[in-house]
Write a structure and sequence with these properties.
The model has no long low-confidence stretch (mean pLDDT about 85). This protein is an alpha+beta fold. Helix 2 packs across helix 3 and helix 4 runs antiparallel to helix 5 (about 225-240). The chain has helices at about 1-15, 115-135, 140-155, 200-210, 225-240; strands at about 20-25, 25-30, 65-70, 75-80, 85, 90-95, 100-105, 105-110, 160-170, 175-180, 185-190, 190-195, 245-255, 255-265. The strands form four sheets. Strands 12-3-4-13-14 form a five-stranded antiparallel beta sheet, covered by helices on one side. A five-stranded antiparallel beta sheet has the order 7-8-9-10-11, with helices on one face. A two-stranded antiparallel sheet has the order 1-2.
Length: about 270
């Protein structure tokens, strides 16, 4: 009992850090232990800043939401986008356009990071002005489509965080819609959508515009009917996507120019 009490007293006196009790057949002994200061734990909270490796993350990209949609017709193209600008669960603005007229017969619709979209528009505008000065004429819609592809491809190692749809009227007066990926691969399609509400619009357009999996006769739609379809599509997307809302801006492109239509959406 005396040996146990003395051992506990010794251990308590040294706080268990500088002496280690050893029990043998000849009695109890104390073995001195030397600990380096770095092995002792500090009572302060380690936030990983000074003592342990600490990873600091930074992303140059910000997804600002939004949805775009473009539909081509026999002699027109309709392109639309909502006007909400978001960041996370915050609405930064309710009136920011995602449409940019590159020529009087061609409109670019972009969703994604607002700063990258603005930079992309500036680059395209500058290159189109150079083309116009050199050739004494504006670029055709297929030429703008190729220009956009090249511009995106030049930035393939640090891509623009922009999801682009290009709509316009070609040299024959037919509607043209081009769909792009992040690094410039593109194709001409009957319709295209991008942004946060893309997954809600594509199935609807497959049914209404491409007439897939339907047995009734497909008919040609005028731009007035397509505009109404676009309005209904954005109402549907706004019900399911928190980044789509406030209003939808619609541009109807024909050989005579661009007509603008504004349609309000829910604001919650």
């Amino acid at each position: 009992m005396t040996s146990y009490m003395s051992t506990m007293a010794t251990l308590k006196a040294t706080n268990g850090t500088s002496a280690l009790p050893i029990h043998t057949t000849e009695g109890t002994a104390t073995l001195p232990v030397t600990l380096s200061s770095s092995s002792r734990k500090d009572d302060s909270i380690d936030h990983g800043v000074t003592q342990n490796p600490y990873q600091r993350a930074f992303s140059p990209y910000e997804f600002n939401g939004g949805t775009t949609l473009a539909i081509s017709g026999p002699d027109y193209a309709v392109v639309a986008a909502d006007t909400r600008l978001s960041a996370g669960f915050e609405i930064l603005s309710r009136d920011v356009t995602k449409l940019h007229a590159l020529t009087d017969k061609c409109v670019l619709a972009s969703a994604g990071c607002k700063t990258d979209v603005d930079q992309l528009r500036s680059v395209l505008d500058i290159r189109q002005k150079v083309y116009a000065h050199n050739h004494r004429k504006p670029m055709s819609t297929p030429a703008v489509a190729q220009l956009l592809s090249n511009t995106l491809y030049y930035k393939r190692f640090f891509p623009y965080y922009a999801f682009n749809v290009l709509a316009g009227v070609d040299m024959e007066g037919r509607g043209a819609v081009y769909s792009y990926d992040a690094i410039g691969s593109y194709e001409r399609t009957p319709f295209s959508a991008s942004g946060s509400g893309q997954s809600f619009l594509i199935p609807l357009m497959d049914n209404v515009i491409s007439h897939k999996n339907r047995c009734d006769e497909k008919k040609e739609l005028g731009w007035e009917e397509v505009v109404e379809i676009v309005k209904d599509a954005f109402v549907t997307a706004g019900e399911r996507d928190i980044y789509t809302g406030d209003a939808v801006e619609i541009k109807v492109i024909t050989k005579d120019g661009i007509n603008n239509i504004h349609f309000p959406l829910k604001q919650d």
